[in-house]
């Protein structure tokens, strides 16, 4: 009897150990599967498992393309909403600043359909390349100020209220005026400003600079000398210089050209 009791206790101990091991194994397997599914980016259920190989590849290709789809929609409706009450929420001006960029992009695309900014493209580089022609190279500071204010409105935790938005709107109006000149500038230069690099137009010598030159009143008469002031590509260091091209007077005798020594 005592031997039977000892055998039964041994069986209970062994069965309890096996049961504990099975429970721990099942629990560990469930936890591992749970963490694996949580860290996995794909679907939990295999999609297209019973489909053809070509169809399955197409389904997987389209699913993998979803994270690369990016869009930048408008944040506020164009129509006045009765849900926005006075005083306006602090983020309202930030929303308007982001939507104003979409307005500027639409104006640029309307003037030149070839100029469209992709969602992942930098706004600063897009404006510098698109508005280079109408701004004539002198608007880089304006573009940088606008982009800095836009980034402040979108990302900076500092306050962006009515005063900041008014300053932002003034910069926006200047860029909109420059964008409206894209069509005329593109027609004059025969192409989009992003197709090829453009040169700045040459500056002409100002008449006021001529009057301030020493001896400007002693210029010779027109039939003896010609002052090349029109359509002359001068630099800033040449603004105080006058190029004189001698013109032969009708009364002067013609000078015979020297004979060509190589002529036969």
What does the overall shape look like? Answer: elongated
Per DSSP, what share of the residues sits in E-state strands of 2 or more residues?
Answer: under 5%
Q: How large is the count of helical segments?
A: 9
> Could you say which structural class the secondary elements and strand pairing correspond to?
mainly alpha
Fraction of helical residues: 40-55%
Mean of the pLDDT scores?
Answer: 72
- Compute the number of strand runs: 2
Largest sheet: 2 strands, antiparallel
Rg for CA atoms: 39 Å
- Strand order of the main beta sheet, please? 1-2
Unreliable residue runs? 192-207, 212-250, 252-258, 260-264
**Order of helical and strand elements:** HHHHHHHHHEE
Q: How many domains is the backbone divided into?
A: 3
The span between the termini is 145 Å
Transmembrane segments: 6-28
Function: General regulator of phagocytosis. Required to uptake Gram negative bacterium by macrophages.
Membrane topology: Single-pass membrane protein
Subcellular location: Golgi apparatus; Membrane; Mitochondrion
What does this structure look like?
This protein has 264 residues and is mostly helical. It folds into three domains: 67 residues, no CATH class; 98 residues, no CATH class; 40 residues, no CATH class. It has nine helices and two strands; from the N terminus they run αααααααααββ. Strands 1-2 form a two-stranded antiparallel ribbon. α3 packs parallel to α7, α4 packs antiparallel against α6 and α6 crosses α7. The longest helix is centred in the N-terminal third of the chain and has 38 residues. The C terminus is likely disordered.
């Amino acid at each position: 009897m005592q031997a039977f009791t000892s055998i039964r206790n041994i069986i209970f101990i062994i069965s309890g150990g096996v049961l504990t091991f099975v429970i721990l194994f099942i629990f560990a397997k469930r936890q591992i599967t749970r963490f694996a599914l949580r860290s996995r980016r794909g679907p939990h259920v295999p999609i297209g498992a019973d489909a053809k190989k070509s169809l399955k590849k197409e389904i997987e290709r389209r699913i993998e393309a979803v994270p690369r789809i990016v869009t930048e929609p408008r944040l506020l409706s164009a129509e006045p909403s009765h849900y926005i009450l006075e005083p306006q929420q602090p983020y309202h001006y930030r929303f308007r600043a982001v939507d104003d960029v979409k307005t500027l992009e639409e104006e640029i695309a309307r003037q030149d359909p070839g100029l469209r900014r992709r969602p992942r493209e930098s706004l600063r580089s897009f404006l510098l390349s698109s508005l280079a022609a109408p701004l004539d190279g002198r608007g880089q500071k304006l573009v940088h100020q606008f982009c800095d204010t836009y980034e402040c409105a979108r990302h900076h935790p500092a306050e962006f209220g009515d005063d900041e938005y008014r300053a932002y709107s003034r910069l926006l109006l200047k860029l909109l005026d420059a964008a409206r000149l894209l069509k005329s500038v593109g027609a004059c230069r025969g192409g989009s400003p992003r197709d090829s690099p453009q040169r700045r137009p040459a500056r002409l010598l100002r008449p006021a600079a001529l009057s301030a030159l020493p001896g400007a009143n002693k210029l010779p008469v027109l039939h003896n000398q010609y002052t090349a002031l029109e359509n002359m590509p001068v630099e800033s260091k040449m603004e105080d210089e006058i190029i004189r091209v001698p013109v032969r007077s009708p009364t002067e005798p013609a000078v015979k050209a020297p004979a060509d020594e190589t002529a036969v």
